[in-house]
Structures are given as structure tokens and as C-alpha cells.
């Protein structure tokens, strides 16, 4: 069995993969180009890929009819054309669960950083600007009693809500479907329409997957509905936010600030956002802890091993879009 890995993965995962077949790992310290990807997968029974790899029917065809499984080392799988792969009999897997806490931690970190001006304060000191403590100096916004609006109350959204509850925030949420009553009551979370959420939240945090319905969910219109004092946090996928509209909205002070871990055209970032002190940016670090990245790679490797062994995948993504 030939297993193609598009970017280096932790050794723990390599051990599992080597037991399942002959492993080829890209030696590049960058994403493979689309041409390189099609070339690399030739003859593969399994592909372990990253969120920057676009895996569609053409890639599956380049691999050949023996391709059985594409294991994305990510919970999000908008980079994979799941229906096209399903048509070709290829199982797609993702890595839910293991990155929930790490991602919610980073989202909450961005929330604190932007509301308490941590990045701005850091830059002030590093620029050796003179300063002194005074009662009006670099004031931020408190969180206690404020409302967090969670768009998409899935696993990560719920983990974010738990953190916010500990900080004394009230939770409202919107999403395709209503959460279970026990989830709502544990979080004291109130379900609102998306518009109502935008209207009432002091912080809007995005935790929905990127789908055709959520692309540019936060656009000029949505920003116009948000409170002028509100903050936007995005740790899901960049294209859920219209980045140019966000820059426009921030310049017009339609909202107070943003904490962003993901971008529309990674690794690029809308340059105007980088000029703004009320924007905190991190380079797609949501799941970036040693523990979580190891778990993610291991889970992907176990998915490959299970499918190649003729067993069911641990985390199969179904073509109807439901996460297993
Ligand atoms: C990271 O962004 C993931 O989807 O796992
Ligand atoms: C703040 O630093 C305080 O001591 O109140």
C-alpha cells in the first residue's frame, strides 16, 4: 500500500503509517503546488493531506482508481471535494474532537488580546515609547456581563462558551440547527437568529464550518448590523469573513476591533488590517499545540490504517456534509 503524506507529520503518526504501508512524505517546507500534488499522489492508496491542499476529483484521478482514503489533518474539510471523492469510492476523514480545547483557547486568547489591547500594549513597549500609568491609559473593554454571540455552537463553539461563562459572559448563539436542550441549559445559551445575534452581541465569535452558505457570512451588511462597540473573533476559516469589507468596516468604526487567526487567502492578509491597532492577528494557530497536533496526526494515521485494513474509518466525513 502506498501512503502519500503531503507535509511532514509528527513521528508518532509516522509509526502508525509505516505499519500500514510504504510511506512517502514530501520533503518540502511549503505546501505542494497543485501540479506537484497531482504528481505526488500518483499510485497512492492513501493520502494524508493538510488544509492548504486542494483535493478534488482531478487529484483523485491523478492518484488512480486504487485510491481508498484521503485523511485531512484538520477538522475543517472545505479544501476537499467530498462528493467528487465519494463518487470515486474514496473515503474522506477529518480530525474532530482532539483540537476542540486548543482552538477554543486560542479564540478566547484573541478575545482577551483584542478587548484588553494586549497586542497594542506589547507594540507600545517594544517601540520604546515613553508611558506612565494613569487612570485613562489604554483602556479596554471588560467582559463581565457582556454578551458573547457564538455563530455555530458545535464542539468548538461550546468550548468557547464554557470559557466565556467562566469570565462572566452571557451566551447567545445562532446556527443551522438548535443545540440540544441540555447543551443550552449547561451554557445558559439562548438561541437567536443570526441577525438578532449580530444586533445584540458585544463579541461575535465564528465557529461554523466554511460552506457555500457561510462564505462571506460576515460581509458589509453584517458588519453594519453589529454594535459599534462590538468585536469580531474568527478562528474557523478566513472566507467566512469578507476581509476587504472588514477592513472598510473597521476604518469606518462600524465595529471596535477584530481578533483573527484565519484569512481569506492564506498566507496573505489584507494589508490594511495589519496597520490597525485594534486588530490582533495570529497565523492560523488554532490547533497549534504540541499535544493537539500530535493527536491530530495520529488520528489521521489511524483513519488511514483502518481504511487500508478494510475496516470503517474512525472519523468519516460524509458527502452530505455531516461530520461524523
Ligand atoms: C484547522 O484549522 C482545522 O480545521 O483543523
Ligand atoms: C493596578 O495596577 C492596581 O494596583 O490597581
TrEMBL record:
Listed InterPro entries: D-isomer_2-hydroxyacid_DH, D-isomer_2_OHA_DH_cat_dom, D-isomer_DH_CS, D-isomer_DH_NAD-bd, NAD(P)-bd_dom_sf
Highest taxon, organism lineage: Bacteria
Pfam family for this entry, one: 2-Hacid_dh_C
Keyword terms, alphabetized: NAD, Oxidoreductase
CDD domains (UniProt xref): GDH (cd05301)
MF terms in GO: glyoxylate reductase (NADPH) activity; hydroxypyruvate reductase [NAD(P)H] activity; NAD binding
Coiled-coil ranges per UniProt: none
Domain D-isomer specific 2-hydroxyacid dehydrogenase NAD-binding per the UniProt entry, residue ranges: 108-286
D-isomer specific 2-hydroxyacid dehydrogenase catalytic domain boundaries: 3-317
SUPFAM superfamilies in the cross-refs: Formate/glycerate dehydrogenase catalytic domain-like, NAD(P)-binding Rossmann-fold domains
Keyword Protein biosynthesis applies: no
Record PROSITE patterns: D_2_HYDROXYACID_DH_2, D_2_HYDROXYACID_DH_3
Assigned GO CC terms: cytosol
Membership in a protein family: Belongs to the D-isomer specific 2-hydroxyacid dehydrogenase family.
Name of this protein: Glycerate dehydrogenase
Species this chain originates from: Amycolatopsis methanolica 239
Amino acid at each position: 500500500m502506498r501512503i502519500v503524506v503531503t507535509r511532514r507529520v509528527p513521528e508518532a503518526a509516522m509509526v502508525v503509517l509505516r505499519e500500514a504501508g510504504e510511506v512517502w512524505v514530501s520533503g518540502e517546507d511549503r505546501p505542494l503546488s497543485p501540479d506537484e500534488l497531482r504528481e505526488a499522489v500518483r499510485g497512492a492508496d492513501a493520502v494524508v493531506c493538510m488544509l492548504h491542499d486542494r483535493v478534488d476529483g482531478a487529484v483523485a484521478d491523478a492518484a488512480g482508481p486504487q485510491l481508498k482514503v484521503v485523511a485531512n489533518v484538520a477538522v475543517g474539510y472545505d479544501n476537499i471535494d467530498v462528493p467528487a471523492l465519494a463518487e470515486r469510492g474514496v473515503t474522506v476523514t477529518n480530525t474532530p474532537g482532539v483540537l476542540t480545547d486548543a482552538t477554543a483557547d486560542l479564540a478566547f486568547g484573541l478575545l482577551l488580546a483584542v478587548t484588553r489591547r494586549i497586542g497594542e500594549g506589547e507594540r507600545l513597549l517594544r517601540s520604546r515609547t515613553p508611558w506612565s500609568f494613569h487612570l485613562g491609559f489604554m483602556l479596554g473593554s471588560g467582559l463581565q456581563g457582556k454578551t458573547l454571540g457564538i455563530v455555530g455552537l458545535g464542539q468548538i463553539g461550546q468550548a468557547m462558551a464554557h470559557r466565556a461563562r467562566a469570565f462572566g459572559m452571557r451566551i447567545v448563539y445562532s446556527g443551522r440547527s438548535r443545540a440540544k436542550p441540555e447543551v443550552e441549559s449547561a451554557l445558559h445559551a439562548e438561541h437567536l437568529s443570526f441577525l438578532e445575534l449580530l444586533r445584540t452581541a458585544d463579541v461575535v465569535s465564528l465557529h461554523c464550518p466554511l460552506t457555500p452558505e457561510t462564505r462571506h457570512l460576515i460581509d458589509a451588511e453584517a458588519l453594519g448590523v453589529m454594535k459599534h462597540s462590538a468585536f469580531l473573533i474568527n478562528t474557523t476559516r478566513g472566507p467566512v469573513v469578507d476581509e476587504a469589507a472588514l477592513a472598510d468596516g473597521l476604518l469606518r468604526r462600524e465595529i471596535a476591533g477584530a481578533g483573527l487567526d484565519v484569512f481569506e487567502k492564506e498566507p496573505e492578509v489584507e494589508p490594511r488590517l495589519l496597520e490597525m491597532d485594534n486588530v490582533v492577528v495570529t497565523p492560523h494557530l488554532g490547533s497549534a499545540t504540541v499535544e493537539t497536533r500530535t493527536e491530530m496526526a495520529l488520528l489521521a494515521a489511524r483513519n488511514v490504517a483502518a481504511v487500508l485494513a478494510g475496516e470503517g474509518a474512525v472519523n468519516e466525513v460524509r458527502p452530505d456534509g455531516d461530520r461524523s
